């Protein structure tokens, strides 16, 4: 897919963000989106082809791969990026609504359509809560699906149609685990930034 939409969305949100919000946009764009496009996508590109079991029983390898990797790391990461970025659309739509309302009434109704106050403040707070919620949900998903953020070198599989317990080997496990830890670290950083911005706006 093209990531231009998320890039444009983040650029638009940057105009209406606080200082902490701009740091969040930079982290998502530089340390998550670019890392995904430039490096991470290639590491998981052939994960199914490079997953090998020490048996050639038809269907065994596919069943074992599906059991240990019900959802690809990289597809889940892509979905996470999309989900944590889209709540920012609420802010963009609210500002567009204010600008359209001013145009419709042909007079200035707001000091600045992009100023975070009143209804826009509520929309901004809701977007922060949604972003934080999505981050936490995806961290829990990663933890549950991949056994505590681990990528083992060897997995033992006894799923049918395998005739017995077989050994299956995952390609580039160390490299994948490094990127998984990076993903978790950047998610935690984004949660921290969202909570900081939420506190800043509430107490301000």
Point out poorly predicted stretches.
none
Helical percentage: 55-70%
Report the CATH topology name: de novo design (two linked rop proteins)
The major pleated sheet works out as: 3 strands, antiparallel
SS-based structural class? mainly alpha
Name the strands of the widest sheet in spatial order. 1-3-2
- Number of extended strands: 3
Summed up, the domain count is 1
- Overall, the morphology is elongated
Order of helices and strands: HHEHHHHEEH
**Beta content:** under 5%
CATH C-level label: Mainly Alpha
Number of helices: 7
CATH architecture grouping: Up-down Bundle
Overall pLDDT metric: 79
Identify the CATH homologous superfamily: Gap junction channel protein cysteine-rich domain
Distance N to C terminus: 40 Å
Radius of gyration using CA atoms only: 22 Å
Helix-strand layout with pairing:
Elements lengths: L3 H11 L4 H25 L8 E2 L6 H9 L4 H13 L2 H18 L12 H28 L8 E4 L8 E4 L3 H31 L1
Antiparallel strand pairs: 1-3, 2-3
Helix pairs in contact: 1-2, 1-5, 2-4, 2-7, 4-6, 5-6, 6-7
Subcellular location: Cell junction, Gap junction; Cell membrane
Function: One gap junction consists of a cluster of closely packed pairs of transmembrane channels, the connexons, through which materials of low MW diffuse from one cell to a neighboring cell.
Organism: Mesitornis unicolor (brown roatelo)
């Amino acid at each position: 897919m093209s990531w231009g939409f998320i890039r444009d969305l983040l650029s638009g949100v940057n105009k209406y963000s606080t200082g902490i919000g701009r740091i969040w946009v930079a982290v998502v764009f530089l340390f998550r989106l670019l890392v995904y496009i430039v490096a991470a996508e290639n590491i998981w590109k052939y994960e199914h082809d490079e997953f090998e079991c020490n048996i050639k029983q038809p269907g065994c390898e596919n069943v074992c791969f599906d059991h240990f990797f019900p959802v690809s790391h990289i597809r889940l990461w892509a979905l996470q990026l999309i989900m944590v970025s889209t709540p920012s659309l609420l802010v963009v739509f609210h500002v567009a609504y204010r600008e359209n309302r001013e145009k419709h009434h042909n007079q200035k109704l707001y000091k600045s359509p992009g100023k975070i106050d009143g209804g826009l403040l509520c929309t901004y707070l809701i977007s922060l809560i949604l972003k934080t919620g999505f981050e936490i949900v995806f961290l829990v998903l990663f933890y549950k699906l991949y056994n505590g953020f681990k990528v083992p070198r060897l997995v033992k599989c006894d799923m049918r149609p395998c005739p017995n317990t077989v050994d299956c080997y995952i390609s580039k496990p160390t490299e994948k685990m490094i990127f998984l830890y990076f993903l978790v670290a950047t998610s935690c950083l984004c949660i921290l930034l969202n909570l900081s911005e939420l506190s800043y706006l509430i107490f301000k």
